[in-house]
Amino acid sequence: MVEFAYSAKDTGGQTVSSSLQAADRKEAIRKIRSRGLTPIRVTAGGNSPTKVSKPVKTEKKAVAAGSEVKKAKSVRLGRRHALPFLKNFYELHKSGLPIAEALRILGKRIKDPAQAVIIKNLLRNVQEGKSLSDSLAEMDRVFDGSTVNLVGAGEMTGNLHEVLDRLIEYMENRREMRNKVIGSLVYPCVILFAAICVVLLFLFVLMPKMQTLFDSLGGTLPLPTRLLLGLADFLLYVGPFILVGGFLLFTSLWRWHKTESGALFIDRLLLRIPLVGNMIIYAETTQITQTLGLLLENGVTTVEAFKLTGRTVGNKYIFREFRDVRQKVFEGTAVSKALENMAIMPDIMIDLISVGENTGNLVPSFYEVTKMFQKRLGQILATLTGVISLGALLFAFLFVALIAFGIVSAIFSVSSSLSH
């Protein structure tokens, strides 16, 4: 048994400092929570508080160290390279290989240049005596703060392979959800694109030829045909200005979204759009609960877990609201009460988390909420896809029908004038 000194918040928000005996840090955190306290710092043997490794903003060593590889081919490292590396490393490490040996074997068999750069840097740092989590932290282009802290928690508790297993599952679920969103939008976008192409073909290819024919035959064209010809002329002369104006507007909004005030305004506005707003809320809720559950399950303190989870929130308005929740949790407020202050959070989520707190099973409650909102997000995506697809089909059908009616009515009108 090891003696752990800790600082924690009680239910009244007061800071409590004491010590206890536990087999490891994870068990110490569990005992602290069983006393109704929220851990802030936990340290073994009375040393300075031991925190889970945090991502340190250092020079981009991954790019610098990969200069040799870049001589042959340019390598751009990013978040997409994290999951393939973790899966390969997990397969070797779970069989009992030490970290350095697993990295060495990976370095010999991996052919992908980006993976080679990652493994080379990690192996060098590990051989210099650094922990795996500290090595990951130096490659912050690839590994985010949550990944670094989870790996650090796994190293400290001695169950790194279990942490990697849950982390890989979490990252795969997130990737699957992102691919589902993209895949759901492909079909309606293809339909809409085809509809626009058909309309443009009629307006700019067929209609001018029909107009030349009608002019040569003479006679007065009916109103629908004149409207179509006027629309074709309008788009032909004004269309380029509309495209340029739309591009400039989009660019301006994109640049404004990069600012704090612009991102806050636009992201809040998106939440008010029917279906789209619910989709964003459910996606962010799933991200928040899944990340919190994964961090808390692996020994990260509540305050640190909320801090790291906030970095994964994409919507700036939800991020600002969640930052206030994190502050309330730090002050000792119950998690369910703090989340209740976020008006956008669904009531069922608050109820499930409240039950989890009362029964001491907060982590399973987070996972239950994650599963629930993943299903709801899938339903919204299906509905949104159906609405966009139906709208594109109706647009194409009505416009083509209008063009056909204009042409047919013009033919009848010209034929009638010729007969007289």
Describe this structure in words.
This protein is mainly alpha-helical and 420 residues long. It folds into three domains: 2-44; 61-143, Type II secretion system (T2SS), domain F (Receptor-associated Protein), CATH 1.20.81; 169-420, Type II secretion system (T2SS), domain F (Receptor-associated Protein, Up-down Bundle). The chain has helices at residues 25-34, 61-65, 67-72, 82-93, 99-109, 113-127, 132-137, 145-157, 160-217, 223-258, 260-270, 276-297, 302-310, 316-330, 335-340, 347-359, 362-419; strands at 2-9, 15-22, 38-44. The chain has a three-stranded antiparallel sheet. The protein is elongated. The N and C termini lie far apart (109 Å).
Give the % helix: over 70%
Mean pLDDT: 79
Approximately how much beta-strand content do the residues carry?
A: 5-15%
Distance N to C terminus = 109 Å
Largest sheet: 3 strands, antiparallel
Number of domains: 3
Q: CATH superfamily assignment of the largest domain? A: Type II secretion system (T2SS), domain F
Tell me the name of the CATH class of the largest domain. Answer: Mainly Alpha
Q: What's the arrangement of strands in the largest beta sheet? A: 2-1-3
Quaternary status of these chains?
Answer: single chain
Radius of gyration: 30 Å
Shape: elongated
Strand runs, count:
3
Give me the strand/helix succession.
EEHEHHHHHHHHHHHHHHHH
Number of helices: 17
Structure classification: mainly alpha
CATH topology of the largest domain, by name, is: Receptor-associated Protein
Which CATH architecture of the largest domain would you pick? Up-down Bundle
Which regions have little confidence, pLDDT < 50, spanning 5+ residues?
A: 46-73
